[in-house]
Amino acid sequence: MSRRSRPRDTSDIPEPEEVFDEADIDEEELDDELPEEDAYDFMEDPESELRNTVEAIQKQYGAVVAAGNSVKQPLRISTGVFLLDLALMGGIPEGRVTHLVGEGSAGKSMLMAKIMACAQMEYPDQQVALIDVENTFDPVWAEKLGVNLDQLVIFTVETGEMAVDVADAVLSSRETSLMAIDSLAEMIPYKEAKASAEDQHMGLQARMFNELARKITNTTNHEKVRGHYPTCLLLNQYRTDIGKMFGDNRTIPGGRAIRHISSLMLDIKNKETIGKDSNDVEVVIENEHTFNITKWKVNNGPRTGSFQLMRTDDSSVGLEEGDVDNAATMVTYAKKFGFWSGAGKNQKLEFDDYSIKFNTQAEGKLAINEDVDLYYSLYNALLREQAIARRMPADFIARFV
Predict the structure, then answer these.
(1) Which residues sit opposite 233 in a β-bridge?
(2) Fewer C-beta neighbours within 10 Å, C or N terminus of the chain?
């Protein structure tokens, strides 16, 4: 017989005096005997060295120390696009850097304007700042997208270094809720602007972007100590990497510094739908924009999606030029979360305090677009259900009530 299969000799083991039975345990007595101890809090211990260190740091540098349980999910600024807000759990994060990248005419400035309009609605007592490096801001189109020009401050700069200094100063102002730069790719270093076109300037833009990244990080961290959470929105453009033969040959100007400080990176594309107006002239009827979340440090969610932006008025669905057709997507998710039931001429939308019947789905979409209260109530209810599904904290879910 092998060593592994040899039976154990149990002749020397004494018989147990009493058989243990779990049924004999009195849970109340056990709870009395073993009281639950509170978690150790070093801040309550006068002999704790870490407590003395934290107090010294707070005294010297200010309120830069926070307990882990006091750190909350950042607030959100809506993008004005329901599917994108659903993916981002409410919008872009406040007090963080969002990097928006795309090809030419991809819809970057459009989405920037939508976010600025939402920031103005969220914080009517504060200002939105735009550093217009390209000098291409269109006030007429911006108003159609919802921007309040009276609540917008526009800075025009000559060089990239000037844009860096302006951005640093604007973020330091308490009245600033959102600061956007359009766009990073067009920020020209001072030496390059003043030199001849024949001169070579290697790495100037990358060093300038590194300085911008460091200043943004330093300023936003300092403002958080003051209870101010300015949001930074940076637009950028793709360039072609000539030396790359295989794979994605797209690159972003200025190195990788902006990528590293960004909590959110969005890649956006555009596909136009051409039609004819009342005068039989070819015009753009709508833009179908596709987004891809390439970096998201706050929480998980859908990474891709698409939405339609109206370029002409369409009374049949209650939309005007510059509106995003959110109702169609909202109805889809209302069915998914159980808010929408029925079929044919017996359809019903029921959530919170609303209970509305519709003969057709198109009738329901029109009602959502025309009733502002219904629109935003359903918008928040769907975001709340998404937050619950993602097991977000209770205080975060309460924001959508």
Answers:
(1) 98, 180
(2) N
3-class DSSP assignment, residue 130: strand
For residues 142 and 149, the answer to whether their CB atoms sit within 8 Å is yes
- Look at residue 5 and tell me whether its pLDDT is greater than 80: no
Cα distance between residue 118 and residue 3, in whole Å: 76
pLDDT range class, residue 90, cuts 50, 70, 90: very high
Beta carbons within 10 angstroms of residue 178's beta carbon = 28
**CA distance readout (Å), 121 to 87, 118, 171:** 21, 5, 19
Give the three-class secondary structure for 314.
Answer: strand
d(Cα 94, Cα 75) in Å, to the nearest integer? Answer: 5
Looking at residue 267, the DSSP 8-state letter turns out to be E
The two structure tokens encoding residue 16: 């147990």
State the Cα–Cα distance between residues 48 and 69, nearest whole angstrom: 19
Q: Tell me the C-alpha distance between 71 and 51, whole Å.
A: 19
Which has the closest alpha carbon to 383: 320, 314, 337? 337
Do 389 and 69 form a contact (C-beta atoms < 8 A)? no
d(CA 11, CA 243): 80
Average pLDDT over residues 45-70: 79
Q: What is the DSSP letter of 280?
A: S
Contact 205, 213 (CB under 8 A): no
Full-model pTM: 0.86
Cα–Cα distance for residue pair 317/336, rounded to 1 Å:
22
| Predicted pLDDT of residue 150 | 96
**H helix count then E strand count, the chain:** 13, 15
288 Cβ contact list (under 8 Å, min separation 6) = 270, 271, 272, 273, 306, 307, 308, 309
Q: Which domains does the chain have, with CATH numbers?
A: 71-318 (3.40.50.300), 325-401 (3.30.250)
Identify which has the larger pLDDT, 220 or 298.
220
DSSP of 114-131: HHHHHHHHH-TTSEEEEE
Describe the strand order of the beta sheet including 282-296 as a list of residue ranges: 152-155, 127-132, 176-182, 231-237, 97-102, 264-276, 282-296, 304-310
CA distances for 70 relative to 46, 60, 67, 74, angstroms: 21, 21, 5, 12
| Tokens at 289, concatenated | 């924009």
Structural tokens at position 299: 């929480």
DSSP track, 357-385? EESSHHHHHHHHHH-HHHHHHHHHHHHHH
Q: What does DSSP assign to residue 75?
A: P
Token code pair at residue 4: 């592994």
One-letter amino acid identity for 135?
N
